[in-house]
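#help-structures
NK: newbie question, is this the right format to request a structure? protein is serine-type D-Ala-D-Ala carboxypeptidase
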Amino acid sequence: MKNKIVLFFSLCIVFLVLSFQIPVFAEEEKNELELAPDAQSAILMERDTGKIMFDKNAHKKLPPASMVKIMTLLLIMEQIDKGELKKEEMVRISENAASMGGSQVFLENGEEMSVDDLIKAVAIASGNDASVALAERIAGSEEAFVAKMNQKAEALQLKNTVFKNVTGLPVKGQYSTAHDMAIIAKELLKYEDITTYTSIYEDYLRKGEKNEFWLVNTNKLVHHYQGVDGLKTGYTNEAKYCLTATAEKNEMRVITVVMGAETIKKRNKMTSNMLDYAFNQYETNQLYKKGEKVEKLQLLKGDNKNVNIVTSQSISTLFKKAEPLKDVKTEMTIQDDFQLPLKKGDKVGVLKIMKGDKTLSETPLVVDADVNKASFLTLFKRTIQNMSKAP
């Protein structure tokens, strides 16, 4: 009898403990989910480390609407970085580009506009006509440019993204995910001057002319949330309201994606919730800036035998404010089997950020200039010079 009484009270104690614990755990989970309660899919990512701080159905395939233009802009910025497209270049608008529906800046067939202004039209006003005009300039046709978009998605190992156009207009078989959109945004933000476009709240095309066009940013958070300076909104009846946003505060840049919100107000509120959470809870410590020299590479058979190895992007560590990250070290690996020529931006190594045996991040190291094979005459001169220096 005594044993039964002890067992009874023991069970009561266990029940009481569990009854107090369950609401605590449930409340923590509830608060986490309330960051984006009305989104079909959402994600919060720190840019430098790629660390995901929050996600909801992040790998769910959904129509991305005009957020497709993040990939469009990525390929445009790559071309500018390579020197194959100049911002001051004038682009002739085709009849096909001028005929685009949806969001547009009313480009006219045969009109010429600078690359710089066309990028503004895409980044600020989500101009479908400007997107197609730039795609045709780079690849010859929209179809050929879309092929490049899908090739880039494959290179970024995005398994749940397929592009069918450069605009995001509804089309069967075009889909992406919050996760994949965040990865594309992370890649785009390597080109740091992209935010000089996406942060503009209002501007003009053809200013002072009869057909002057007022550009107003479709991302109102650029105006209403301090630190937000991009990136791209989206809306179709099928996709509902979408937004890939980025903001920077105290040298920490974060990326948020919301897909499938019922209203603009709900979309912006959920984005703000995620940004507040990131900046209130986390901090970063920047270790390297983008393009910072970490080593010098000597290539005896190159026309430029001394070339700098630099970081391909900003490198940071991320930690909760209450738990600073300690005992972090770097580990650099440089390839030893180079094939010439090398192009500016080609990967030649990796920089790892380590904490103990755990790898926190891996960042490609690249060369900061082109290196071609040295001519026979150059190699001959170097040989003579080396011989003359010998004792």
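mod (FA): yep, format's fine, and the tokens are attached above. Residues 55 and 72 are 25 Å apart (CA to CA).
NK: thank you!
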